[in-house]
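Input for the complex:
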Amino acid sequence: MSATRFPADLAALAPLRDLVKQRADAAGLSTSRGYRLMLAVDEVATNIVLHGYQENGLEGHLDVSVEVTEDNELVVCLEDDAVAFDPRSLEGPDAEDLSIPLEERDEGGLGIMLAMDGVDRFDYERVGERNRNTFAVRLKE
Amino acid sequence: MKVTATQEGSVTIVAIEGKIDTDTCDDVEAALLAHINKGAKRLVIDLADVTYVSSAGLRAVLIVGKKIKSLQGKMAFCTLRPVIWDVFEASGFTSILTVCETRDGALAFCQG
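Predicted:
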């Protein structure tokens, strides 16, 4: 599986999204599910760039690979060398939080919720000195 | 990303074009707040030409929405593409904000 390397920089997020979208379209994923997959990868990648690299004064890369598995899943694998961080450890808003009226509504926390909610499966593992985030969506039989 | 404003009576119609992501959210927020600071209290935000909104954009929407609310103003979004509507819905925005299918619907809400 070959990976595409992007600098860990906010300016790299648009081309990273384009890559995911292109591969999702090629795999036959619907527009709406392709969008949610692209959004999920963007949200996690944004976190890695801002909190994994920049906040720690680090520079590095994001390595992205996209493949269709034998189980007919489209799998995006996002790897980085920043500090260890499992996005699942962030507590996002629940259904009750989402219905809080505008004036009292917390402004943050939506990104990881949208990411987790937008794919069929999300996995995180620390592999050696690297973080590996895996996003999977089922393709139609 | 591009922001264009037109005035329709007491309502300011702001059409946004492009992507509202980590890179552009501050500009979108600043452009909308600038209209509010100049006295706009009734805002229609037309998203017909917005192709992408991430959580950074949603955060800007909440900040602007709170500002309008604190001024007892009115704000309505309109003409969202289906993928954008989906993200607004998943974030609870379709129940805490006014989101209309047409620009006329949004205009009528803000004029009321």
